[in-house]
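batch job 7 of whatever, protein = Pyridoxal phosphate-dependent aminotransferase
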Amino acid sequence: MGATIFAEMSALAARTGAVNLGQGFPDTDGPPVILDAAVAALRGGANQYAPGPGVPALRQAIARHQRRRYGIDLDPDREVVVTTGCTEAIAGALLGLVDPGDEVVVLEPYYDSYPAMIDFAGGVRRPVTLRAPDFRLDPTELAAAVSDRTKLILLNTPHNPTGRVLDADELVAVARVAIEHDLLVVTDEVYEHLTFDARAHVPLATLPGMAERTLTLSSAGKSWSVTGWKVGWATGPAPLVAAVTAAKQWLTFTSGAPLQPAVAAALDAGDAFPTALAHDLQAQRDQLVTGLRAAGLTTYLPEGTYFATTDVSDLSWASGGDFCRALPERAGVVAVPSEVFYDDPDAPGCGRHLVRWAFCKRPEVIAEAVRRLGGAD
Ligand code: GLN
């Protein structure tokens, strides 16, 4: 196993002093409510092992959040498990639910831990590609990816790296295929609060017939700007949550104790912070996309997440990877080549020439990156 693209690109940024628009993490802290609650928990003695499935206060707060925001009813004792970031929820779901030889249908481009964990579980991935410029999910291709060996569909919306927020038609297509073939769906919704232009994120679990077959994954990192805390969760039917909990015993056993009550406090404080964050991110998206276009880069407008995508093929680079590895020296900016998120980046409409830029940075940082790229600002 080599270094992930995120580790490679952040190291490149550190070495060259480039503006890092690669790895997706904000350069501002989360709100006082979450930080103060963490300090209080640290000072209040919450420093020994938490219960394996998570501290009850957090499981209850997660259930309240799902009820308040989406009308989803969960039993916090059986239908919620706390994980060490969504990354552990992904690992636990795949290790807990996929047997060797099972097939997993996954959206492509995919977040890089998906193929890694499908491999760890001994599963076989069947990618369904979202193609530029629209990155829409084609229901025919989705149906064609399913076989009698398919165990589950691994969904991600809002989608990293494309920034797509799947719409009602696409979600219905997923639900239809899952119900017809009696499949589970694991859906990574960590960017659930971070959508733009009044677009609503709809959890797949809210569609008819889906609650009983859908395991929903999310985390505090993106919504409350605490990506380094690594507090995530999985929610859904008790047997699916039990599978994640069982796998978790051998992954981390239990997640960081003082951060859990702090995340509970943030969830119970309501959605004002994530809503304001999404508003700010939308402005930062516009700033970056305008700047990249002014610099001559073909850029797609994302509907959510931290990320915008450009196509560098008309700049005569052999690949987005070549472009990204030259960019820090040439321009003092780091981005991530999306080619690593595809099985075959040279297939039609795939990502050999696509590059991902993070706009979860302060406006002055985005302005400096745009200036270095020659897009004025
Ligand atoms: N999810 C973030 C991204 O896509 C961070 C990934 C990571 O560092 N593993 O950039």
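notes: The pocket of glutamine is lined by residues 4, 6, 23-24, 160 (CB under 6 Å).
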